[in-house]
Specification:
- The chain contains 19 helices and two strands.
- The chain is an all-alpha fold.
- A two-stranded parallel ribbon has the order 1-2.
- The radius of gyration is 22 Å and the shape is globular.
- The termini are far apart.
- The C terminus is likely disordered.
Length: 396
């Protein structure tokens, strides 16, 4: 009797699942549909978690918007984020007010996870137009523990600006510089950390893959993104100084991030911060100059390589970084692993470094700061547009 009941239940579940699969286009593989469903379910399971940032910032901002009349709340400087993210909170607090608050707040970033995965898929498909690797890249992103942790557990929005950066890289790969700059401008309007991709953009500018007269697109997109908040009544100078105010808010050399500054006492904050910023600018200019002097073409593989190096190097050598700031490197290292399989270990190291920094265990953060330093050194040493003679000698 029990076996008969189990068989009936199994047949019912199978029938329901088959009906669900029919909703999707027939060309979509079943394993991809299953992965998407699982990715959605695991995010819904994680939604109730209330991180410290949710309690201290996101939920109070949501409540402030509700109390102050929705869109009109944007005239106040109640948050240290730029307005584009706050526009979502306005939508969440008004149009989505019927949803649980925590779900409404997290919904945007969780949805953008899939957009980020889509652009990852598009980039990988450029190299592998046939086969399943593009789908596997998509699945790797949506099921990455770091990606799930960031949006579904913490309710953070790093996937949003990172998606802009990944879109920028995709359009650079297909030599569409205007959409690339628009994507970068959108990323920058959400988070200043979009500047982690600046070494690649400078290289592409020097290599004339980006024309200088298109550069005003970036600040124009940023200004356009500020207009709704300005129309709501917030002064434009205040909107333009959001990032400046952010930079002066936290006085820590390293906030739970596995980078070089884990090993420097915060007592030296002022002098080390100055040296670190100046040193980083010098490194960016030096890297761009070396690659510019190299006459080799920036192929898709080299572009992905340099993009990964850019978003990995800057949060490692810049002071005042937080644990989430390696998020663009998390995604770019996945793309690099598909483009150049010999660098899969880089992706694993980056993912583990980010995951342990999210968990906040100091000993592991310091340990992975060493491993990440080695990974960056390895990428620099093996980059044929930085050390062409060394690479030629190694091949010979």
């Amino acid at each position: 009797m029990t076996n008969t009941s189990d068989q009936k239940l199994f047949k019912l579940i199978k029938y329901k699942f088959q009906r669900l699969l029919k909703i999707f286009p027939h060309q979509v593989p079943a394993y991809l549909i299953i992965a998407i469903i699982f990715a959605v379910l695991i995010r819904l399971v994680c939604v109730p978690n209330q991180s410290s940032d949710y309690k201290s910032f996101l939920a109070p901002w949501y409540d402030f918007i509700v109390i102050n009349g929705g869109f009109s709340a944007l005239k106040y400087g109640f948050a240290d984020y730029t307005p584009p993210y706050l526009y979502w909170l306005v939508i969440a607090a008004t149009l989505l007010s019927g949803l649980p608050k925590i779900l409404a707040i997290k919904l945007f970033a969780m949805s953008i996870d899939f957009v980020c995965a889509f652009f990852t898929y598009k980039i990988v498909k450029l190299k592998y137009p046939e086969g399943k690797l593009g789908n596997f890249a998509f699945i790797t992103v949506i099921l990455s523990p770091v990606v799930i942790y960031n949006s579904a557990i913490w309710g953070q929005c790093d996937s949003i600006y990172t998606t802009g950066l990944i879109a920028c890289i995709y359009f650079l790969c297909i030599q569409k510089q205007i959409p690339a700059l628009v994507s970068f401008g959108l990323a920058l309007s959400f988070k200043l950390q979009a500047m982690f991709l600046s070494p690649l953009l400078l290289i592409m500018l020097l290599k004339k893959r980006i024309m200088w007269y298109f550069l005003p697109i970036i600040p124009l997109v940023y200004l356009l993104a500020m207009i709704p908040a300005w129309l709501a009544g917030r002064p434009m100078p205040e909107l333009l100084l959001v990032y400046f105010n952010q930079a002066n808010k936290y006085k820590e050399l390293a906030k739970g991030v596995p980078n070089f500054y884990q090993w420097i006492p915060n007592d030296f904050y002022r002098v080390v911060t100055t040296i670190g910023v100046i040193g980083t600018i010098f490194v960016i200019l030096l890297l761009a100059y070396i690659v510019y002097k190299n006459k080799q073409e920036i192929t898709q593989e080299r572009l992905i390589y340099l993009a990964t190096l850019s978003v990995l190097l800057l949060p490692y050598i810049l002071p005042k970084m937080h644990q989430r700031y390696f998020y663009p490197a998390d995604i770019c290292s996945i793309i690099l692993a598909f483009y150049l399989p010999q660098y899969r270990w880089i992706a694993i190291v980056v993912q583990l470094s980010s995951l342990f920094s999210y968990l906040g265990t100091p000993i592991h953060i310091k340990f992975f700061s060493i491993i990440l330093g080695f990974a960056i050194w390895f990428l620099v040493k093996n980059c044929d547009v930085i050390y062409p003679k060394l690479k030629t000698a190694l091949r010979d």
